[in-house]
Please model this.
Amino acid sequence: MLTGAPVTFTLACLLIVGLVWVAMRWRYGGVVETLEARLVGRDDKIKDYQEKLEGASPDEAKARIDALESRLQRLEPRRIEQEECDTAREILSKFSGAVAVTQDMQSPDARPLSITLAGIFQSAGWDVSSPAVLGPANPPVEGIAVTIHDLNNPSDRDRAIFEAMDAIGHPYGRRGGLNSREQLDAEILVTSQV
Model:
């Protein structure tokens, strides 16, 4: 009887291992199939992205998207949000002065933007004039230029204008050399972005 014990024990162990294997396969078979299906789906998705991106790396794709967004931003009309208007108005209200907000009549979005800028200065208590030009000789690349008398030695008022323009959030150029014969403290030229 003792001689058959190792064979019986081995068969019992094999039977238990087999039953555990069948139970585990039954229990986790669906999970494995689901994971395999997800992997195939991800592989298909990655392949689809690679085809659509023409083999570009993620960094190259991001650079292309950023370039397209930049182009789109230049095409959209420039606006100033109410919160930015309020912040700029608060900064400007600490000073008074005279400003000309000049619009380029060749620029399609210069008029609404220059009207908004003039309104900000006017509501802060500044004297505002709104001349128009037809194609300025030296248009700013940024689409907006702020010209003061002396760029190398700006007054507190000049710094407040720059701070207000920074708060507005649109890119703008800073220029010096405002004609001192004019009774202006600054001129803001609004034209198309180049």
Q: What stands out?
A: Helices lie at 5-52, 58-75, 82-92, 110-123, 156-168. The first strand starts at residue 98 and ends at 104. The radius of gyration is 35 Å. The chain has two domains: 5-75, 82-190.
